[in-house]
Amino acid sequence: MPQTQKGSSGPPLQTFLGIRTNGGWYSPLKPAELQVLRAQYEKEGDFVGVQTKFNYAWGLIKSNQRSDQQLGVQLLSDIFKTTPERRRECLYYLALGNYKLGNYAEARRYNDLLLEKEPGNLQAASLRQLIDDKVSKEGLMGVAIIGGVAVAAGIVGSMIVRGSRKR
């Protein structure tokens, strides 16, 4: 797992396998940093260890590339399904990855599982708020779209009725 190191100034830095990042789930790794994780994953091949797979998935989830995020979620899902003792570690990053991919129901499901186990987890609580905000925003957009379609259908319907009356 990433470890936070407090510096003398600025935001805390995280160190993960010797890779120092500026923290935050929103900060992707530099390409060279992700390559270190990818190289280790590929080096282990068919005998890839759970920790190596987790490390690579973590880096992929932090990426801004959708395909990387999808692979990260897939790798973490594999760990979650096959290694029960590592499930808790996977929950936050599965929630985060699904959030970044727009899979809000899945993100909420994993995040809620984590909050059940760790009600005081501030990262998970913050992520829950982000998920709820996105769902609310998209829900309102959906209502607006449906409303717009209904108005358009009403206009078209009234035009048809008017047209048939003129005949």
UniProtKB/TrEMBL annotation:
CDD domains: Fis1. The keyword Transmembrane helix applies. It is a single-pass membrane protein. GO terms for cellular component: mitochondrial outer membrane; peroxisomal membrane. GO terms for biological process: autophagy of mitochondrion; mitochondrial fission; peroxisome fission. Keywords: Membrane, Mitochondrion, Mitochondrion outer membrane, Repeat, TPR repeat, Transmembrane, Transmembrane helix. Its main location: mitochondrion. It is found in: Mitochondrion outer membrane. It holds the Pfam family Fis1_TPR_C. The keyword Transcription does not apply. The chain crosses the membrane at residues 139-161. Belongs to the FIS1 family. The C-terminus is required for mitochondrial localization, while the N-terminus is necessary for mitochondrial fission. Has a role in mitochondrial fission. Has a role in outer membrane fission but not matrix separation. This is Mitochondrial fission 1 protein. It comes from Rhinocladiella mackenziei CBS 650.93. The lineage of its organism: Eukaryota, Fungi, Dikarya, Ascomycota, Pezizomycotina.
